[in-house]
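Task: encode each sequence below as structure tokens.

Item 1
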Amino acid sequence: MNEHEEKDMASDLYAFVKEYALLKLDDETKRYESLIQQASNMQTAFAFSTAALFMIAPMAIENRGNMTLEYLLVVFSSITLFLMLSLLFASLAQSRGKLKSFADINTFEQFVEENYEDYLSKAQQGKAIVDQIGEVQLSASERNDKMASRIKKSMIFFYIAMGLSAGWFIVSLIVLCN
């Protein structure tokens, strides 16, 4: 294989890797958008649940029967605590955090002009672009993993709050019936 064929092959390979890198970066971008939507949905669920909880609280206090105010305070406080933790992690998930980005055009252009010998071949150019996309994609992936973890925690706390709501409801029915 002659030198020209090797350069063409290297150029083709880096074009292939670049295409894959762009697909992966696009995948992380779509994942980010989905995670932002999930975090927003958790905040909406928090809002509706909290509104319902605080609409029920006055009725429960007014019609408490033989339930003490301290008991009702524990009931509503425990549920509210987990709802607040759910909101906290949903809000933290929406924090953008630091994300590596592509170099500005002027900076990139100046760098290439100063190091033009390193970017004469198509393969070298392709490798440079793949390296840059790789750094941005890895940064996005790490950010998305943190967001997903926070959303998962938000959901766990939300489910705990809903479980407490159902549990306290059953206990309260038993207390009222006795």
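Item 2
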Amino acid sequence: MYTIDKYNPVISIDLNNGIYIFDCESATGKTRLCKELRKLQAYGEPVASYTYEDLLIGMPVDNIFDSNNKVIMLDRYDLYKDKWHDKIKECSKNSIVLIDCKGEFGASEDDEICFIEMTADRIEVTQ
């Protein structure tokens, strides 16, 4: 579980360490969560996010798969789903790994589904 309430929006991720795939419904707040996690990472919080645009501009992923990160999010992963399977599995032992993947994830048989709820001042991720 990871909750951070000292910034707005409050982010609450009520999950244990592991790999979680968001349901495939569009416009639920996944990209907003990705952007908020990026901000929190800049503030020094132990979270990280990465998206397809980062891949296109050549942003390295080394800091994303840092073992100190409590939450790792890969947004629009279906556009680059052939990458980093071993790193994702390794990080899932110590981190909550959230993946936005519209199709079959296929890199792990241990992944589970998660859901996101968003309001103006709160983002919640649950199972």
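Check on item 2: The mean pLDDT is 92. The longest strand covers residues 112-119.
End of task.
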